[in-house]
């Protein structure tokens, strides 16, 4: 009985590996170049990191004696 459980587990693992490989291949085909093209074109360059701006404002308020919450 233990041998059949090991066999089923191995078959399941093999099937999952095949499925994962298929997903990777399809993703590569769908996303081929699109993401890297956006980066090269600078589409993300104009996006502001608001977290940094908020941190700077909190520091400024603290220095002036105000609350940061």
TrEMBL record:
Basic residues: compositionally biased ranges: 59-69
What are the boundaries of the region Disordered?
A: 1-21, 46-69
Q: Where is the composition biased (Basic and acidic residues)?
A: 46-58
What name does the UniProt record give this protein?
Uncharacterized protein
User: What lineage does the source organism belong to?
Assistant: Bacteria, Bacillati, Actinomycetota, Actinomycetes, Micromonosporales
